[in-house]
Design goal:
This protein is an alpha+beta fold. The protein is built from eleven helices and nine strands.
Amino acid sequence: MSKLDTLAAAASALLKQAELSPAEAAQRFDAAVDADRWRKLVPFATVEEPAAAGESARVGPDDVARATRRLAKDRYFCLEEAFESEQIDRMRRIVEAVRADGWPAVFSFVFDDFWSIARSPRLLALLEASLGEDCLQNSVIWTHWVPGAKGATGWPPHVDLSGMGDKFLSVWISLSEAAIDNGCMFLIPPGDMPREVVEAIDAKADLSYASYSNLLHNVVALPVPAGSLIGWRGDVLHWGGTNAGGDVPRVSFALEFRSRDEAFTKFERPMIDPRAALPPLRLRLYAIAKALRHYPKFEPIVSRFQPLTERLWAETAPPS
């Protein structure tokens, strides 16, 4: 066994030892399904209340046109300070309260703000311009918290869903400043990646000097202030940077959207209509459990919640 394999095995064993006990998992489950407990935990936020009328996005027609042009050309766009600061500040404080109570940050999706933001008429106009009318949100979600400590990293390079062409869009929204020194987003437009590089990345194979030199020259850094909106197609290679010494945690969350006329993968279901009522707590918890089952590959620390995750997954799953 190599030294790397030995370290990985040791880390896995430590995480297993840290796993929630049956009693802890049962206690957490009872708390997770209790909407009133969440309301008391974060009294300045709402759970399962009707979406308030109004507009939280600062995205105007010129922004939509600029974003869709960039999306067509480079398969990503970036709009700085796209949302009202009051909502963004509230959402960041929700994440802080959730983490302070011992939950993974993705449990912020219990709260209405993390679903109602996709119902902003101006954001919806941008989504429809990018994906067509009647586009849908899938139930793939995550909340990112990159500690404000040197060496902390976001997720490694990956693509979200290749082969979907212009029928898929990931949306990433910053709840704090995402700067070079605290791990902003990076990406490489697909047009700047030769086919042999794409194949090597998919196969986790080595790259030649010429290939990785080309990749490094085409990396796009996307430092943004809080409340900014970045979107990319499913075939865009992207990752969260490494903290280079910044003391501010990088907080953000991600959503995914699809054209209605496209077949959906099993992992994406159930689909959600962003024009309809906010999803009930049961569906929110299912989406959270799905994320916690799928993303320990990027954030191994959440695997300690596996006993809770599996029970939530089993007891909130939509009917087949």
